[in-house]
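Listing S7. Sequence submitted for prediction.
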Amino acid sequence: MSLFASLLIGIHVCVAGVLIANLVYLRTSRQADAPPLSDEPPLLSVLVPARNEEANLQRLLPSLLNQTHPNFEIWVYDDRSTDGTAAVVQGFDDDRLHLMPGTPLPDGWLGKPHALHRLSQQANGSAYVFLDADTRLNSPEALMQWARQFAARPDRSLATGLPLLRGGASWIVSLVPNAILTGLPWPLVKWISSPSLSALNGQFWMIDAGTYHTHEPHRAAQNEVLEDVEIGRYLKAQGITPYLWDIRGELTVYMYASTHDAWRGFRKNAYLLMGGHPAAFVPLFAFYATTFVVAPWVVSWLWVSVFGLKAATDAWNGIPWYISLLAPVSYLAGALIQLDSAWHHWTHNVSWKGRSVSARSTASPSQPAPQNEN
């Protein structure tokens, strides 16, 4: 057996080890018997950025307003939408729901960080729950469960989670839980101090309000396309380590309606996830392509690993088995999306929801914490 073949086998063993460790971690990261909340349950502020989210909000808002947690508020930021986003929010007659009209973006800000930063300046809760507009709470007990889990870990002030992923283009979208579960060894996040070993999932994360305003993470990542990843790294650099929850029972994300939409969405993010700079992108792309596309052609029994890794993460996320049979096609598509994303970023031709986004920003996750505006 050649040295190269041995290296490929070793890489697949390591990737499988990361997957197994993460699945075990997810089984223990939440207390199975979190104690009930006190007689005065904490006020939760649910903060939702919305730009042309008319259809998604019609699914999300009823699931939020139906929550049994007795003390919460919802803030939706209408980021200058051109559809009926504002009308959908205004159509619900509920004092817990608040609409904030959008304003033009200040210099140096991107849309989502700006929206969430502005909402955070109005929120009144003791903890903030950040949700994307394309989500839906699966259970009326979801907010209550998150509040109980959060209160059960007083030493921790930052949580994120892995929800169910649904929508069109499952053969591509299924690469998201696959990457999260095989790419970052979550059991090591709290033990290794490097900020690069941290991230948040922007679809859902939760933070103590005092911690948030001490560090103002959205200002620290104000010009970041992947603001959730950068915020996770920024907060870890400040000594705040996130922990990851399994929230499949409580949250579903409807990411994209079609393959075309999914490809455009991943085009925006893939290059940045692979380092966002040619010096980082080239080796990371080479590692991905070699591990998941080339390896089984070099060592034939690694086909078992390629299918097995994908089938395991698909099954965890409830994705149909026939999508797992497309594993080689999905991994190849992932490589092509990375190249397409790199090209569009290099040529400054990336846009999302009618706005251009840059390949790299000037914001740094290690910059000093900005001053609170409150």
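Caption to Listing S7: primary sequence and predicted structure tokens for the chain studied. The longest strand covers residues 44-50. The radius of gyration is 20 Å.
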